[in-house]
Specification:
CATH superfamily of the largest domain: P-loop containing nucleotide triphosphate hydrolases
Radius of gyration: 22 Å
Structural class: alpha/beta
Number of domains: 2
Shape: elongated
Low-confidence stretches: none
Mean pLDDT: 93
CATH class of the largest domain: Alpha Beta
CATH topology of the largest domain: Rossmann fold
CATH architecture of the largest domain: 3-Layer(aba) Sandwich
Number of strands: 8
Largest sheet: 8 strands, mixed
Number of helices: 11
Order of helices and strands: HHHHEHEHEHEHEHEHEEH
Helix content: 40-55%
Bound molecules: guanosine-5'-diphosphate, magnesium ion
Strand order of the largest sheet: 3-2-4-1-5-6-7-8
């Protein structure tokens, strides 16, 4: 994960530690290298620029230049700034009482909504002792319903579905009713995505959201698509009251641009990350742990 960035940071720190004394110019050179590395990692341009400025300011404030161990001081500063960049975030799922708590998944096609809906159901059933119901509300492709049913079976969570119906608002409403009747305290709605943000998809998902008024809306984004993920998140955020982002496929993301830019560009935190295809491959997101991992200390 993010190997190129880790290597680059480490070589920058090494170059600072290797000197007996460093100058302000050395720090500036180092930050130029860091900025280049961030841009190569597909971090948003403004975010990279601001990040480097913040690190430089903090470094001057901390008098890295006079320090006996400038490399170490810089590691700490960069670690803190990376943590700030991605946080703060509260990765808890909040439940309403009386339930059911309604959680809606939104996102582009292929981003991992269906998989993540099931992963999340498993997580909250096991960790929070909840009794979730998955609702198959992606009615665009028949295979989508089947896919959710297969996953539901695998994790032992029931799936509400209606075959041969195209009205996502109606199925969402009926799903909610079914949950109430059957004592489910959480409802997780899987919805339809498109390949790109378009009006039809946004209208449908906004209509579902208006009808069932979800308590939490998570946007599912594919980390491997880098800045495209961040830009589409910005579009979704204009239309839906997002509570946070679930960044999937982090296991296949060598660069890290989406993880590092998401919070700053969209204003929404990453709440969970997907780190594989298996049902247990969903983790709460902790900015400080991610920062340490990026710096090769995790
Ligand atoms: N490696 C990896 N694959 C994932 C992850 N999340 C989802 N996938 C895969 O991405 C593909 C699309 O996922 P799907 O849930 O069908 O996306 P949807 O169209 O948004 O519902 C599937 O093959 C999933 O197994 C993840 O965190 N890591
Ligand atoms: Mg799907």
């Amino acid at each position: 994960m993010f190997d190129a960035l880790t290597d680059k940071f480490n070589s920058v720190f090494r170059s600072l530690s290797g000197r007996g004394r460093i100058t302000e110019a050395n720090v500036s050179d180092a930050m130029r290298e860091v900025r280049k590395a961030l841009l190569e990692a597909d971090v948003n341009y403004q975010v990279a620029k601001q990040f480097c400025k913040d690190v430089r300011d903090a470094a001057m404030g901390a008098e890295v230049i006079k320090s006996l161990h400038p490399g170490q001081v810089m590691v700490k500063i960069v670690n803190d700034e990376l943590t700030k960049l991605m946080g703060p975030v509260d990765p808890k799922v909040y439940y309403v009482s009386p339930g059911p708590t309604v959680v809606m998944m939104a996102g582009l096609q292929g981003s991992g909504k269906t998989t993540t809906a099931a992963k999340l159901a498993k997580l909250i059933a096991e960790k929070d002792g909840k009794k979730p119901l998955l609702v198959a509300d992606d009615l665009q492709r028949p295979a989508a319903i089947e896919q959710l049913c297969t996953l539901g079976e695998q994790i032992g969570v029931p799936v509400y579905k209606e075959d041969g119906i195209k009205d996502a608002v109606k199925v969402a409403k009926n799903g909610l009713r079914h949950a109430r009747k059957n004592g489910h305290d959480v409802v997780i709605l899987d919805t339809a995505g498109r390949l790109h943000v378009d009006e039809e998809m946004m209208n449908e998902i906004a209509a579902v959201a208006r009808t069932v008024t979800p308590h939490q809306i998570y946007l599912v984004c594919d980390a491997m698509t880098g800045q495209d993920a961040v830009n589409s998140a910005r579009e979704f955020n204009k239309r839906l009251e997002l509570d946070g982002v679930i960044l999937t496929k982090l296991d296949g993301d060598a660069r890290g641009g989406a993880a590092l830019s998401m919070r700053q560009v969209t204003g929404k935190p990453i709440k969970f990350v997907g780190i594989g295809e298996k049902m247990e491959d969903l983790e709460p997101f902790y900015p400080d742990r991610m920062a340490s991992r990026i710096l090769g200390m995790g």
